[in-house]
Amino acid sequence: MLSTTKSFPQKFARAIFFNVSALLLSLILSVVADAEDPPAGGENSAKKIVVCSTTQIADFARNIAGDQWEVKCLLAAGQDPHSYRTTAADSRDVAGADLCLENGWNLEGHGWMRTLAESSQRPIQTCVEGITPLQTEDATGEVKDPHAWMDPENAWIYVKNIRDALSKIDPYNADLFSSRADLYRYQLKSLRVWIATEVNKIPVQRRILVSHHDAFGYFCHAFKFEARSPQGWSTAELKGVSPSKQQEIVKMIRDEGVKSIFIETTLSREMIASIAKEAGVTIGGELYSDAMGPKGSAGETYIGMMRENVLTIVKALK
Predict the structure, then answer these.
(1) Which residue of 17, 50, 104, 208 is most buried, as measured by CB atoms within 10 A?
(2) What share of the chain has pLDDT > 90, as a percent?
(3) What is the pTM of this model?
(4) For 21-78, how does the pLDDT look when each residue is reduced to its tens digit (9 = 90+)?
(5) Residue 204 sits in the same domain as residue 175
């Protein structure tokens, strides 16, 4: 009888011990599982994807998204967004995107980026939203000039739109996007001040910028140049440039005493070379317009392309 009485508290204590141990083990496993499974958008989650139409927009997106998102660009360096024809690979990229970015104002000829996004039911942000457009003309009448990034002040609006679109989809990383955008804004402000200083080396009467098409209107408006070209705002119109239009440009070059004219890196040099020869002026160099330069070149970023354009223009016209 005595031994039976002593074994009861031992069995009770043993049961409590095992129950407490099981509870502690359960809590430890729960904590480990939580640590290995961060919130949506966290550091170890799969990267979201943003697909951009143009090289400039992709560069802005990389500066804001950092390593949190994968940035893809449909256009390669040197490709022309006005005349671009989309591919099956483009459709697949857009179908897998969490966000699409377009310039807008029909830079993407016939709205090819929006068509891709809407066909795959992907969200799309138009980067020129909030910019006051310059007006230009084509056969249909007045249209909005889409080359707004050529003024660094407008580039900041592109960046803000990208920041906000990323933050809406990925609020977990919104503070990172905002901080990167703030830093990039300082870079854009410095770029604009530097450009103004550089172009002041060119006498006002020589600030006439002649290139293939009207891609530099915002640059010229910001820095007090006159923009002239054989054709309008879209390179799709270049095939229709008439001999009389070329003669008009040649006459203007002679009458205005233009020193040099410029080739755009996305277009053939043949037409500009012909105009330069007939007008008796030099080709001042190549300018980045609708696309940035290839990887490893001085113009592989937005700031780089703007810097190289300004250096080329100043050297040729001062």
Answers:
(1) 50
(2) 72
(3) 0.84
(4) 554 445 444 444 444 444 444 554 689 999 999 999 999 999 999 999 999 999 999 9
(5) no
Is 26 inside a domain boundary? no
Total domain count for the chain?
2
Q: Token digits for 313?
A: 């223009």
Could you tell me if 176 and 148 lie in one domain? yes
- In angstroms, the Cα distances linking 175 to 97, 182, 245 are 22, 11, 52
Enclosing H/E stretch for 3: helix 2-36
Query: What per-residue string of b and e applies to 24-55 under the rule 16 or more CB within 10 Å gives b?
Result: eeeeeeeeeeeeeeeeebeeeeeebbbbbbbb
Cα 75 to Cα 281: distance, rounded to the nearest angstrom: 33
The DSSP secondary structure of 201-239, one letter per residue, reads: TS-GGG-EEE-SSS--HHHHHHHT-EEE-SS-S-GGGGG
Q: Which of 136, 164, 192 is the last residue of a domain?
A: 192
> CB-based contacts of 161: which residues, under 8 Å, 6+ apart?
125, 126, 127, 129, 130
Q: Which domain holds residue 92?
A: 48-192
